[in-house]
Each structure stands twice: as structure tokens, then as C-alpha cells.
Amino acid sequence: MSKDKKQKDVKDEKVETEVPETETTETEPVEEIKETELETARREASEYKDLALRRMAELENFRRNNQNLAKDVRDRTLSEVILQILPAIDSFNRAEEMVSDEKTKSGISIVKDQLMNVLKKYGVTPIDAIGKDFDPAFHECIMQVDSPDKVGKVIYEIEKGYTMNGKVLKYTKVAVGKEIDK
After folding, report:
1. Which residue among 43, 74, 79, 121 is least crowded, i.e. fewest CB within 10 A of its CB?
2. 147 lies in some domain
3. pLDDT by residue (tens digit) across 97-125?
4. Rounded-to-integer distance, Cα 182 and Cα 167, Å
5. Among 75, 86, 76, which Cα is nearest to 118's?
6. Is 113 exposed, middle or buried (0-12, 13-18, 19+ CB in 10 A)?
7. Residue at 89 is within a domain
């Protein structure tokens, strides 16, 4: 029995020593595989997140560009319509200057003012030029007038100019003072 017992003990020892080695060997590759899969999954998740953020930014830029484009088209269309109306206002201004009858002049002025009030709602304002320095950004010099004390100044307006929201729609046609020729 002692011999049998020794052989059993030896077999048990071998089994016990072999089992831990087998478990250790099998566990390491599984953990490595899991870590590799986890790293791959994290990298892919990060790439998808970056892609989603880029697409969201592109969509926001697209929306903003469309809004700006729509505003530009609306402003351009409005400007074109107003440019068609401004000659009528110029005609009212000339009629107001030429008419001597006060009632007629008052009627012309009322109609012109009503029209200007509508245009003001859209940001249209007349350019004030008389007595100011000539500025090619707002004025178009049609003629020069001898005026040594007002050189470079607008002496009078030939035709009124207008801006819309700070942008020139129509330049003021002006006469500018100059030195007297000798």
C-alpha cells in the first residue's frame, strides 16, 4: 500500500503542477485577445465619434450658408425693386421744386413723404451731401463750380443719392467747388 500510495501522490502532484501551467498558458492569450479587441473597439468608436462630429459641423455650415444665401437673394431682389422706385422719387423732387402753387407743392410733398416712409422701413435713407466734403464712395461729381471758399465741398445736388442699410444704392450726383481758374 505504501507503494501504491506513493504512486498516487506522485500522480496527484503531477496533475496539480500541470493544471496551473495549463491555466496560465490558456489565460494569457484570451486576455491579450480581449485587450486587442477592446483597443480596436475603442479606436473604431473614436473614429465614428469624430466622423459624427464632422458631419454635424458640415450640416451646421450648410444651414448657415443657405441662410446667408437666402438673405443675399432677398436683399438683392429688394434693392432691384427699390432702384426702380427711386426715379419716381427724383421726379417728385423736381416737381416739388418747379411747382409754384403751394397746394400742389404740398400734395406732391405728401405723396413723396409717404413713399419715403415705406422705403425707410426697408433701410433706405437719402444721402446728405450739400456742404460736405466730396466723397466718391457716396457722390458722383457731374460738374465743378468756381467757389474758392468751398473747394472740394459739395455745392449743390443735381440728383439725390440713397443708401440701403449702409450700402449705396444710388450715388448722389453733385456739383463740387473748385478754385477759380486764372
Report:
1. 121
2. yes
3. 999 999 999 999 999 999 999 999 999 99
4. 40
5. 86
6. exposed
7. no
The parent domain of residue 181 ranges over: 125-182
Inside any domain, residue 135 = yes
Dist CA 11 CA 17 (whole Å): 10
DSSP 127: P
pTM over 0.70: no
- Residue 157: CATH number of its domain: 2.30.22.10
Q: Which helix (DSSP H) or strand (DSSP E) does residue 130 occupy? A: none
Using only C-alpha atoms, the chain has a radius of gyration, in whole angstroms, of 44
pLDDT digits (tens, 9 = 90+) for 120-149: 999 999 999 999 999 999 999 999 998 888
How many DSSP H helices and E strands does the chain contain? 2, 6
Q: How many domains does the chain have?
A: 1
Backbone phi, psi, residue 101, to 5°? -70, 125
HSE-CB of 149 using CA atoms within 13 angstroms? 1
